[in-house]
Design brief:
The chain is 36% helix and 19% strand. The radius of gyration is 31 Å and the shape is elongated. The protein contains 8 helices and 10 strands. The strands form 2 sheets. It has a 5-stranded antiparallel beta sheet. The longest helix is centred in the middle third of the chain and has 31 residues.
Amino acid sequence: MSGGEVNAVEEFAAWLRQMKLLGGDLSLRELERRTQAVGPRVARSTIQDALDARRLPSLDHAVAMVWAMTGSKAAVEDCRTRWRRARSAVRGWELPDMPAPAAVRPAPSKAEASLPPPVASPPEQKPPWWRSRAAAVTGASITLLALAGAGIYLATAHGSGAGEKAPRTPAVSAASPRTPAPSPAYTPVYTHRNLSSHDYNDYFDLLTGKVVTDEGAWSLSTNADPDGDSHGAFELQPLTDAYLAGRTVPTVEQCATGLAHRPTRTVRFPAVPPGSSFCLRNRTTGDIAVVQVNDLDYGNWAADIFLSYYKHTSATTAPAAG
């Protein structure tokens, strides 16, 4: 890092150490536990690196650490301002204002917890003249419909001569003769499992829903994105496709559609910021995993995600029409 970058990171680290002392100088283990209780879990190694000015933590991690250290809303707001200033110095340009992260929020106080639930607003009351006018309009509409029906009946019953009956339109059958095409089925193995990697040496084992240190049969990892601009990326295995779903949590069916029409092999950190999601498909088995990004660390390529895994099952063949 250049001199300006080093000074910015060191200044933020010195302020973090001050917050740690003001909050009672809690141990790294206790801080890690507290961060998990209020938002994204911040590993002890990440906290230590931030305190030692080895690297600037991500904003979500910084806010979670300060809240765990102090429990002060004012300190959290100060943290956001100081982090933006430090990050702007590191990047060389000023960052835009960012909304407060939804994942980190203070627990309700005892007084707030004892309050009764909010009472729903009563439905809007219409004035008496509105009800009378609505009744009059409804009655007029019914009368017009009755007269129109009578006219149609007389025209069909007598227009073609006495004794002849008007042809009846056959009723539409409720059961359609067309059999819908079979669609793939997916069985959830686990859903919304929170996982955190410590750095790029860890793997997310998609089959078991665990963080492991060795690559598995179907796994996901991170790296520095050597083919891009070193801003970090998720590393896919050779027989894995991805679909970037944006800032939504897609269903497995939406993932299957997106993977069929817009598959990709590149999932860089800037394309999947915290709050966004992407889907993975194993080309060999057809299984699908849904990854919700909770936090990313641009220093050691750590990631905090919510993971769901769906096993692909063969679709049942529809019987042929007799």
